[in-house]
Amino acid sequence: MLLIGSHALQLSGIDNGRKPRDYDLIGDFDTLAVLTKSLRKETRVKSIPNSANKTFLFCEDGRIFEYEIAWEGSSGHDLIKAVHNVGPDGPDRTKIAGIPAMVAPLDVLYSLKMSHRYLKNSPHFRKTRDDIMLMRRHGAKIFDREWFKKREDETYWYKHPKLNVKKGDFFKGDGVEYVYDHDTIHIAMAHIALENGPADSWKKVPAYTLYMKDGAEVQCSKEKFNAAEENVRLYGVLEEAQVLALERSQIPFRGKVDPRKSFDMALQKVCTSITSGWFREFAWENFDKVEAMYEPDYVDRFWNAVDAGIVRKLEPGEKGLYG
Question: Is the pTM of this model over 0.85?
Answer without folding.
Answer: yes
